[in-house]
Design brief:
This protein is an alpha/beta fold and 130 residues long. Helix content is 16%, strand content 28%. It has two domains: 11-57, Signal recognition particle alu RNA binding heterodimer, srp9/1 (2-Layer Sandwich); 65-129, Roll (2,3-Dihydroxybiphenyl 1,2-Dioxygenase, domain 1), CATH 3.10.180. Residues 5-129 form the VOC domain.
């Protein structure tokens, strides 16, 4: 049997506009985004790890949350996202009952969470787990 030795693993997702992704993840969210030699982006995550963001001409937004950001204070995080022009109430109250900012309360059965979209329509979330 062949040796299966992994040196590095990472996740990836597609976008329809790599420049819009660079602006959103780098400037709007303030994350570390580095150009990749293949013309893609490397999103370096706080706490380690990275995600490859690649352009795909026939991109379709993911129907699930592609990235979750654990924050110490969801109220402040959502207020900051809104101040930066990010819409955090993307689901109806019938889907996920939330306050006017889109924060869904876990009520002890899960984290407090708010979802938002990147420019390509992919779903992201901020959540307070502690």
């Amino acid at each position: 049997m062949a040796d299966f030795t992994v040196d590095h693993a990472f996740s990836g997702f597609s976008v329809d506009d790599i420049d819009a992704a660079r602006e959103f993840y780098g400037t709007t969210l303030g994350l570390d985004v580095q150009p990749n030699p293949m013309g893609f982006l490397d999103l370096r995550l706080p706490g380690g790890g990275s995600v490859l963001i690649y352009s795909k001409p026939n991109h379709e937004p993911a129907t699930f949350t592609i990235l979750n950001f654990d924050v110490a204070d969801i109220e402040s995080a959502v207020d900051e996202l809104i101040a930066r022009g990010v819409e955090t109430k993307i689901y109806s109250d019938e889907e996920f009952p939330s306050d006017h900012r889109g924060i869904v309360r876990g009520g002890g059965e899960g984290p407090d969470i708010a979802w938002f979209r990147d420019p390509a329509g992919n779903v992201l979330a901020v959540m307070q787990t502690g």
